[in-house]
Amino acid sequence: RILRKAGIPNFDFPDRACRLFNYMWSYSKNIQAIYETPNVINHQTQVNIARNIIEKAYSEGRDLLTELESKQLLSAYGIPTVPTIYAGTAEDAGNEAEKLGYPIVLKLHSYTITHKTDVGGVILNLRNKKEVIDGFNKIKESLKSLKLENGFQGVTVQPMLKLSDGYELLIGSSIDNQLGPICVFGSGGTLVEVNKDSALALPPLNTTLAKMVMSKTKIYKALKGIRGRKPCDIKLLEQIFVNFSELTVDIPLIKEMDINPLLASADGIIALDARVVLYKHDISIDNIIKPAIRSYPIDYSTKLLNNIEVRPIKASDVNLMTDFEKLLSD
What we know:
alpha+beta, Dna Ligase, domain 1, D-amino Acid Aminotransferase, Chain A, domain 1, 2 domains, six-stranded antiparallel beta sheet, 20% strand
């Protein structure tokens, strides 16, 4: 009673006190996030590249991008990808492997098959040209035995990176019937369904929102460095997540997209595999569910004489606005 009269919060049970403390902590974190200045980037050039890739797939009657096309799409948005080279014959695969250097990974190149591992479409740790040629033939025979030979359009040749040196992450997007595109970040790799360590977000994101989403996962703590391991470049990871979210909004024809795994280590961050599924080519844009949050209105930007740009204000303009106000007279 004395504490209440003095205006000091008090509780009969400790669980209620702990709950209130948690609310206060969450509130302070949210207030702190509001005052952070996010970075916003212009994707106009990347949009055009992405649209060309998708138009090519549609012109060939496909609503599934190959792994190579998916990585080209990500690269257009500044997301680092492992070098990936197409080979239509066993001899070509061997020659490309010689150029890249060993060890090598061979992956199925297909217009119709998305999950390559399930059909024997991935062979790791190939250490010479003979193994690469044999690997090519092995993948081809595997599809033939499954009566999926029409899904074999060759292979892609990629350098094999050391997964033990980093963490396997997942960044993906799908469509919710009410909210539209939804992005996910979390632990990746072959055990993604087992670990179930992920957090959801509504695109488009900025770096502040990306950081908040990533911090909700268990893997985020490891990325900052544990048990003597060097931390990953968190700022770069935030920007990659932002770029990915922008891609989902800029290209509404993307139905599903994921990077798994995205390898993150102290040496860098790179996408090892990617999958992109499009809506059917005959769908009307009006029938596609719009994002819950509207993206930055790029179409309202224009350039005048002397290369002066006129555009809507961005969140990242806060420092410029402050400097501008200092120049104003009383």
